[in-house]
Amino acid sequence: MIDNSIYILGIESSCDDTSASVIHNGKILSNVIANQEIHAAYGGVVPELASRAHQQNIVPVVQQALHKANIDKKDVKAIAFTRGPGLMGSLLVGTSFAKSLALSLNVPLIAVNHMQAHILAHFIEDDAQKKPPFPFLCLTISGGHTQIVKVTDYFNMEVLGETIDDAVGEAFDKSAKILGLPYPGGPLIDKYAQQGNPKAFRFTKPKVGDLEFSFSGLKTGILYFIQKNVKENPNFIEENLYDICASIQYTIINILMDKIKNAVKETGINHVAIAGGVSANSEIRKRLKQAESDWGWSTYIPKFEFTTDNAGMIAIAGYLKYLQNDFVDETVGAKARFKVSE
Ligand code: KG4
Ligand code: ZN
Q: Can 7-122+307-323 and 131-301 be said to share one CATH topology?
């Protein structure tokens, strides 16, 4: 008999967002996210401040998620939490909270890999997104990762290629910082790029292996380009902001598209998904969609709210693990380094 009352609480605290979500048989009932504004002033996430903010946010965020889902904590069947990868101090807050809540409610505990969860967000039951069939390729692009993953099953994932230095989200954020924009700069570059000419300025693409990425050279190239031009015209950034953003974004998205194209060619798999914070980017979403008609791919683009860090993705990963009876006991520890293939 199908159990119709599988409510799972998901908790995410790997970086600078505290989030909690309730999922009911694969459907998200609530997905509450508390962003930490405090880091904007520092140009990046300050781990110590992030951990402190998680401690302040976690109780109200969880309460709100239960309230929005219109359930009582006694209805929760299991608690899923992000075990890693991420900042140790941040992970510890979610991990210890999840453990004590599971203990007090006497329900099982489910440990989730954050990067797997980004990918598994595609399996949330939602009319606005279609589910990829196995095997599929997933371009996992976030603030900490840039990988091409071959997904053979929910928890069977293999990294085909990844960045040898910075992640693509860092490339966006560091470029934004050079332009004097606040952290996180990715969404702002995306916004300004929409009004600019993507071919106004040219930046060189890195030369690395077919399925590898590199973004540190690009960042240095952008820095020198800006320094040189600002020397000649102190108002260069203000006068050209939209064109600069459009050109940076165009270069980055071209790199991503080239690599995923290589992966499709090498594997013969043309079901292609994107996941992670950078999959919120309007240009990558557009270009991937275009690949359907241009190259005959089937593409899977997550709903906007499941792209950047959120507990909805932890809840769906938890639900899928629940169905497999994949539980952990309270001796489980947070894991700052945690491969998607583990
Ligand atoms: O997945 P995520 O929320 O956190 C990590 O797991 O790292 O990804 C955050 C990254 C940041 O670097 C942020 O600038 C980037 O995703 N990002 C974007 C956009 N929205 C978020 N980058 C480009 N365009 C966007 N619209
Ligand atoms: Zn993430």
A: yes
Give domain limits for the chain: 7-122+307-323, 131-301
The model's pLDDT over 230-273, given as tens digits with 9 standing for 90+, comes to: 999 999 999 999 999 999 999 999 999 999 999 999 999 999 99
The DSSP secondary-structure symbol of 43 reads T
Residues near ligand 2 ion, CB 5 Å cutoff: 142, 309
Enter the CATH code of domain 131-301.
Answer: 3.30.420.40
Q: Is 169 in the pocket of ligand 1 (CB under 6 A)?
A: yes
Q: Is 86 in the pocket of ligand 1 (CB under 6 A)?
A: no
For 321, the token pair is 């693990």
**Ligand 2 centroid vs 229 CA: distance in angstroms?**
34
- Cα(93) to centroid(ligand 2), Å: 17
Atom of ligand 1 nearest to the CA of 167: 12
**Chain segment 12-43, per-residue pLDDT in tens:** 999 999 999 999 999 999 999 998 888 888 88
pTM, rounded to two decimals: 0.96
State the Cα angle at 154 between 301 and 290, rounded to 5°. 20
What is the residue with the minimal CA distance to atom 23 of ligand 1? 186
Cis peptide before 184 (omega within 30 of 0): yes
Q: Before 187, cis peptide (omega within 30)?
A: no
7-122+307-323 is classed CATH 1.20.1250.20: no
Q: Are 115 and 85 in contact (CB under 8 A)?
A: yes
- The atom of ligand 1 lying closest to the CA of 145 is 7
Cβ neighbours around 197 below 10 Å, total:
14
> Which long-range contacts link 55-58 to residues 24+ away (Cβ below 8 Å)?
55/93, 57/18, 58/11, 58/13, 58/18, 58/20, 58/93, 58/94, 58/97
Strand partners, 110: 80
